Amino acid sequence: MPTPLVIIGTGGHAVSATNVALSSGYEVVSYVDDKNHASEFAGIPIIKVEDCLSQFYNYNLFIAIGDNYIREKVSSEIKKMMPNARFPSLIHSASAVGWNAQIGAGSILMPFANVGPNSIVGSGCILNTGSSIDHDCRMNAFSSIAPGVFCGGNVHIGTRSAVSIGANIKHGINIGSDVVIGANSYVNTTIDDNIVAYGSPCKKVRSRKKGTPYLR
Questions:
Q1: Could you give the CA distance from residue 192 to residue 174 in angstroms, rounded to a whole number?
Q2: Nearest Cα to 133, choosing from 112, 147, 119?
Q3: Pick from 2, 59, 1, 67: which is nearest to 31 by CA?
Q4: How does pLDDT run across 115-125, given as a tens digit for each residue?
Q5: What is the DSSP string of 76-105?
Q6: How far is CA 96 from the centre of its chain?
Q7: Distances (CA, A) of 95 to 30, 110, 130, 140, 167
Q8: Which residues contact 52 (CB under 8 A, 6 or more apart)?
Q9: What are the residue ranges in the chain where pLDDT is below 70?
């Protein structure tokens, strides 16, 4: 039988998370969203956080929020309120995880995502559809790569950093924390913390503060 799962969020990322959950042997029994409670999402009830605390205190939960900073914040809050809950990684059946690779709790691999051998994906990360990290890469907690992102080997992506759709990262490159890499960029040099960078080759455009919105 499928394993019950509760999804936190009802936005676009929740749609994608539902798809992956169903592919990997879960049954979504409820969504959690204080703004949209007492309604339904894809025919499944939406409840408030306080109801989740009482009904699903020891269930499998998944934080389906696309913004890296907000996802980390909500994850921390939910874990404090629900210490007995579990936060599995969701891995689509059409994705690939290489030899000796590690996938952190609460991370998600969308269809056709690839994690190369000996790579480490931290907790709460997103590898979107058709994205790939090669051998010996590291994605720190709550970082994300968008659809069609390709990383060579030995790439390091810092905490809460977001690599936008179609970007390519050369092997051996380090990207700092709280960085946003623009769409279709070619990253061939180190990017420091708290930077917005884009272009081909990718260059710093401006600084950014931790938590500044980047998804529009």
A1: 8
A2: 119
A3: 59
A4: 999 999 999 99
A5: HHHHHH-TT-B---EE-TT-EE-TT-EE-T
A6: 16
A7: 25, 7, 8, 20, 19
A8: 6, 8, 30, 32, 82
A9: none
Residue labelled with tokens 């809050």: 77
The alpha-carbon radius of gyration of the chain (Å, integer) is 17
Q: φ, ψ for residue 192 (rounded to 5)?
A: -75, 170
Token pair, residue 153, equals: 């080997």
DSSP string for 94-142? T-EE-TT-EE-TT-EE-TT-EE-TT-EE-TT-EE-TT-EE-TT-EE-TT
> What span, in angstroms and rounded, lies between the C-alpha atoms of 31 and 44?
7
Summarised one tens digit per residue, pLDDT across range 157-192 is: 999 999 999 999 999 999 999 999 999 999 999 999
